[in-house]
Amino acid sequence: MSGSSGPDLTPGSGAGDGGGDCLDLRLSRWLEGPVPGVADHLPVGDVLTVQLQDGSPVIVALITAGGQIAGSVVPTGRLLTCLRQGVPFLAHVRSAVGGAIQVEIRAAAR
Amino acid sequence: MKIVGGTYAERVTVPAHEDDASGSGMRAAGALGPGTAELVTAIDAATAEVAEVAAATRGIERTMIDRDEKVGFNYFTPVSDPSVDGPGATHAPLVAEDETVLVFGMVEHGPRRVRAQRLVVDPQRPRDLTGLNLEGLTGDRLGVVANARETSALAGGILDPARAAQQVLTRSGAEVVVVKEAGRGCLVVTEGAEPVRVGPHPTRTVWPLGSGDVFAAGFTHAWDSGADPVEAARVASNAAAWWCGTRRDRVPPEILAGVPVETLLPGAGGELPVLERPPLIYLAAPFFTLAERWLVETCRAVLQGLGARVFSPLHDVGPGGDEVAAGDLDGLRDSDAVLALLDGWDPGTVYEVGWAHRHTLPVVGFLNGPAHEGTKMLVGTGAELHSDLSSALYRGVWAGLGHPLTAERVRPA
């Protein structure tokens, strides 16, 4: 195959050293370092974009629809690999109690 | 304060859980929050980046030395014994010095030199433990935090926790030995004083993996801050309850400072008084298929590991005909609480639950399958239902100790 610049989302594409593929990845995480004024307004059901941000080390940030950083999450090696391959991931807000935000991270549906 | 301990991958099959940078050291440092303790850990090249990202995200200061291979723990459930990846891993020389240092036993082997005025050691080796490994460790004052199985092993097989802890105290020269007893809290043993039991703080849901790490972190931090060993164990018990009930990396500073967990965590209880007589839990369950039998065996072993006695119709009466009913009900009559395994809605199990309700016995149900109309009668008559096995098991023990249940279907944190 030539001319393909998009991410490989096919099952068994072997992203990450765990050998799994990106579409299978499901992570439940707490939002770390919640940004005041942003994270505390996230409703259950909201969807954020998972974004790899350069740095030393990199950070896996969650971005609101308005483009604001809400905080970050602890990734797995597989998530880092998938994000670097260009696979889009979303974080779905599952609970939001007293400033504690729990999200489920999974690949965005195509 | 420094924490010396492992950074390991952690996988659980049911419920699904995946963390590439967990382990005792990383978890304990994360629990204390940014700027509180520096982590000294070992990491391999393949895991280095994700460990750095995890530590940075959690705000953990760290020194990472090299190890030669990945190390990970794989659990079928959070109450199952793990298989360990990389048991032969070795690390480069490890050095740590501070006023207070918490040292966890590590999977990796290698030279270490740790010096502290106040040294806390948690062996973290539930199997194959024959003695407290203090090689390379120097502390003016020593505290040992270990679970009941480890303490027994360290004491040459003494099963009574207080006697075993006293033996460890004498052998090691420690100032305090804290025996973690899971659902029954912990026992604090110091030289020349009567052992003091610190009860658990029940939470609505329970994620037990790593609770011992958070306990050790809370104890060491409080001891470092001037608390006496019993006060420090109380802080540790609250910190562990926070972790079990929330699975959140960081324990609130208020809890580390001594505020009871129930003031911050809805549904958490105050310190539960623990009777020396372990509670008797009736294990109501079908045992007709391999899967059912397997679950019964697992639950029985875990309940016993949590410090409960178990009446299991399968084990204590046996399979048979009509004659088993009277024996089963005799066991039910003597029990303090019922743990009912409800998947499949076995008529005998449902009958036992109804009988228990009629005789005011608390009932915890475990139901992993799809929603069922039958839950209405159970919840409507006071039963607490869990889809998470760990939570159901712990709640069953706590109910047997007298902790009130909530009549509802509880979802895992």
Strand count, sense and barrel status of the largest sheet of chain A are:
6 strands, antiparallel
Order of helices and strands of chain A: EEEEHEE
Q: Which CATH C-level class of the largest domain in chain B is it? A: Alpha Beta
Tell me which CATH architecture of the largest domain in chain B applies here: 3-Layer(aba) Sandwich
Instruction: Quote the CATH topology of the largest domain in chain B.
Output: UDP-N-acetylmuramoyl-L-alanine:D-glutamate ligase
In percent terms, what proportion of residues of chain A is strand? 25-35%
Query: What characterizes the major β-sheet of chain B?
Result: 9 strands, mixed
Structural class of chain A: mainly beta
Mean pLDDT of chain B equals 95
Number of helices of chain B: 13
Tell me what portion of residues of chain B adopts beta-strand conformation.
15-25%
Overall radius of gyration of chain B: 22 Å
Notes on the protein architecture:
The complex is a heterodimer of chains A (110) and B (413). With 110 residues, chain A is mainly beta. Chain A has a domain at 22-89. Chain A contains one helix and six strands; from the N terminus they run ββββαββ. The longest helix of chain A is centred in the last third of the chain and has 8 residues, at 77-84. Chain A is globular, with a radius of gyration of 14 Å. Chain B has two domains: 2-263, Ribokinase (UDP-N-acetylmuramoyl-L-alanine:D-glutamate ligase, 3-Layer(aba) Sandwich); 280-410, Rossmann fold. Chain B has a nine-stranded mixed beta sheet, with helices on both faces. In chain B, helix 1 packs across helix 5 (211-224), helix 3 packs across helix 4 and helix 5 runs antiparallel to helix 6 (229-246). The longest helix of chain B is centred in the middle third of the chain and has 18 residues, at 229-246.
Q: How would you summarize what this structure contains?
A:
The complex is a heterodimer of chains A (110) and B (413). Chain A has a domain at 22-89. Chain A contains one helix and six strands; from the N terminus they run E-E-E-E-H-E-E.
